[in-house]
Amino acid sequence: MSGKGESRSFSKSAFTSTSAGRSDLWRMVTKVAKDLPIRERNAAMFNNELMADVKFVVGSSGHTQTIPAHKYVLATGSSVFYAMFYGGLAENKEEIEVPDVEPSAFLTLLKYLYCDDIQLEADTVLATLYVAKKYIVPHLARACVTYLETSLTAKNACLLLSQSRLFEEPDLMQRCWEVIDAQVSD
């Protein structure tokens, strides 16, 4: 970086080349990344097999996606991942099956852990809330609840009421009741 506030762009492909030997690849990565802030270096490693030390097979059978990750990044953002990889009962598996999570929600979780970036969508926000709760990532869970509260309507209030009970979210539950009560009063 040449000045405060400036950011250097980089090509993620520089971090994913597999044709180079390991030492050549390492030299290329360090040359490209040496001046990048940590956030951009971590972002380049998101969903990237380079130096990945764990793979997750995410989704139900027949609809799985294999997602590479880096234990260190995950463990610094989630106490569940820390216990899974470094705790007293840690298993040293290279591949971990996660059949109860949708791949898109798991990728949203990883994007937050790697990039500190939350991008929620209506069709995956409930699955993302589930994965945020499962891996105890409170900031992401709060963002999901806020998203749900702001998208609460009379049409989805009953669904979100049942989900707020399931996820033990009393504030969302209260908002759902308010919307339902307003509809009954009209």
Structure, explained:
The protein is mostly helical and 186 residues long. It has a domain at 1-44. The protein has helices spanning 22-33, 38-45, 71-77, 79-86, 103-115, 125-134, 138-150, 157-166, 170-185; strands spanning 54-58, 65-69, 95-98. The chain has a three-stranded mixed beta sheet. The longest helix is centred in the C-terminal third of the chain and has 16 residues, at 170-185. Residues 1-14 have low confidence and may be disordered.
Offer a quick outline of the entry.
This protein is mainly α and 186 residues long. The chain has helices spanning 22-33, 38-45, 71-77, 79-86, 103-115, 125-134, 138-150, 157-166, 170-185; strands at residues 54-58, 65-69, 95-98. Strands 2-1-3 form a three-stranded mixed β-sheet.
Distance between the termini: 59 Å
Q: Using only CA atoms, what is the Rg?
A: 20 Å
Contiguous uncertain segments of 5+ residues: 1-14
> What composes the largest sheet?
3 strands, mixed
* H/E element order: HHEEHHEHHHHH
